[in-house]
Amino acid sequence: MGKIFPLFLLLLTGCYVNKAMIDPWGYAPEGACCYWLPDTKGRDLACQEEENCPEIPDEDCILSLAEVLDIALVNNTNTQITWAQARQAAAEYGQSQASALPEITADFHHTHSQTSVLASQVELGPTATRQEVIVSDQTLWGPTAYVTYTIFDFGQRRYTSQAARYALYYADYIHNQAVQSVLETITLDYYDTLYQNKLLEAKEADLATALETLDAAELGLRQGARDLSDVLQARTDALLAEIQLSQQHQIAHTSNATLLDDMGLPSNAEINIDRLPLVDPREVRLDSVDDYLETAFHCRPDLLGARASLASAEMSLKAAKRQWLPQIDYSLDIGRTYWKGGFHDDYNYTSTFSVSMPLFTGFYIRNSVKLSRAKVEEAKASLKQIELEVIKAITTSHYNVGVAYETLKAANRFLESAKEQYAIAIAQYREGVNTILDVVSAQSSLFNARAQQAQATQEWFSSLATLSYSAGIISANPEDFR
Fold first, then answer.
1. What is the pLDDT of residues 111-123, one digit of tens each?
2. Pairing label, strands 327-335, 103-123
3. Domains along the chain?
4. pLDDT reported for residue 264
């Protein structure tokens, strides 16, 4: 039996013990310049199939901004991480309340013992003796319960739990901020993709306009009204427009890949989204900067999270200060023991009230208070920094909305004027009234106007989204926070 038991333990530990116990470096690269060759379990990681792949929308479905945001919120990994962290903080808050209740444990013991006692020596003759040994073989078993409870500790448990509660609020607000950040990022990506697609259409229109100018120049050359230089000038501009169109194809593809990645979809997926709408703002009414600041101080998740972090640090400081105070505890041990042969005792128990107070802990408590106080100062500074960042963000974004509004109105008028200018220039060129330089100049203005109008539209929508995010109202009704 003595040899079988160690062998049994060895078989149990063999489930996970391997040569790493004596040669752990055998599982690491041999050198800094060496490539690690995985073992069987390491190679299995490369063979795992992708689970929970995001559902890619049908290519024939044209997605609006709201639908794109909905897909992003479901698949974006940042919100999944912060959601899990908030749940962890919630579990830690629940754990912090456990000390308010008694701790009850129970065990069952079974003990078998064998002891030998030298009882006496019996004389067998003048020179011989015999030793008598009494062997005691005993078996006992029984259940035991233990109850411990801290009756009073001058609020140390309460403030520790409150610190965990505000830490939970901080994690929740950080998740809200992650949601709003995703909404802002996707909104900006969405309008940037629309802008790049709109600019792609503008480049295609530019190429068509350049080819129209080239056709007019070639027609004038065939009729003898124009010379070769006009054709060469028009052809150069057409080739330049073709190059710019090819470059814009690449930019639009990159923008679309960025949008898909931020949505949590593979960048090689194919989706269809709306076109950049034509906007002609007649009037814009914005609240004052102070109104947006007031809303932000009620709605910005990062600001509210910073306040929660400060409250958590203050609760931790109060708990640290109370480590000096006495603590009243109560414990109860109760059990019963059964002996082999049918004998047993009555229930035995030990009931204890105790009062404990730290007298000297190697300055641990004193330094704990200093540490907690420093964390409070850090939380205050972080809160102040975020408040300044919020004021700066709202002031800047509020001003940018006004600029974008004026820019969009001017860009729309610029595009209409450039179209008229080019139409007149190309008509006069066909009639032989002006030169190719006049047409190229009007054509260049039209190219620029198309790009400016697309950019101004994109900046208008982006500035509104940024202002909403800065005020913390991009995902919720501000009245819900009042």
1. 888 887 776 665 6
2. unpaired
3. 15-46 (no CATH), 63-101+156-328+359-481 (1.20.1600.10)
4. 87
